[in-house]
Structure of N-acetylneuraminate-9-phosphate synthase:
Amino acid sequence: MPLKFELCPERHITDCGADCAKFQKSELEHKFNKQALERLYTSKNSWGRTYGDHKRHLEFSHEQYRELQKYAEEVGIFFTASGMDEMAVEFLDEINVPFFKVASFDANNFPYLEKCAKKGRPMVVSSGMQSMETMRRVYQTVKEHNPNFTFLQCTSAYPLDPEDVNLRVLAEYQKEFPDIPIGYSGHETGISISVAAVAMGAKVVERHVTLDKKWKGNDHEASLVPSELTELVRSIRLVERAMGTGIKTMLPCEKACHDKLGKSVVAKVKIPRGTVLTLDMLTVKVAEPMGVAAEDIFQLVGKTVKEDMEEDDSVLPEVVEGYCKKC
């Protein structure tokens, strides 16, 4: 399962086990109109007098993105970003990212989605703030041009309360869109809910990462520190191993327990040779040697025993005429 995380702390997220470092790329004049950039921004999280000043302070340049990409290659991790507007997508395409991430607020931006899809790169689409009806339209729009995409269940709140996570949407997406992988983008605190998403079938997990949850900015409180990221990856890999095949059968690891404590059919009373078996002559116990499997007790009724049996003897397959395990 791919694991992708926003923000790259000084400690390599490769050390934490993640597969991809994902950033956010904006061309601010294409993402915001002039009034949005010029409005005063007095939030405690502000890095400038106006919202535009704030965003310019935070935004990496093209050259910085290329530097980050080169560093990611050196440490052996995939590098990409959410293209927060169409010009940002053009830049990400130019630097040859392995896939496009579509942020939740662009999931209903159909011209943008079509443009991304036509470029042919795999797409990861978050679905915060959207309805199922909208996501059906997203599926149809992207599928027409690009078969390689995934949807992430997401709720756009920072930090996210457990009551608003809505993990059951994962199952609904799996039913609605069975031919694409489904994942989870989490903004909750801690790792338990993200691990639960994997147990429910999520194939991609996205979490934000920070070095200090007390730093200025809404995202930090909803982010993981490196030690939490390490534990999340460890837990996800453990759950992946535990998911199994879905085929219910006795496994080789169970043989020792079965040989020691598995129950089989024994004679409840003394049974002479030639007796036609009835159910009241039989019971089930842990027996030595192990006889006919407990689940086959009803198959023995009406069959004839070929040897004398004492009370509490194991009923062995070879002493019952016409018994066949596979019948």
Summary: The beta strands are 3-6, 20-25, 78-83, 100-102, 123-126, 149-153, 182-186, 205-208, 263-267, 282-286. The first helix runs from residue 13 to 16. The chain is about 35% helix and 15% strand. Residues 6-10 have pLDDT under 50 and may be disordered.
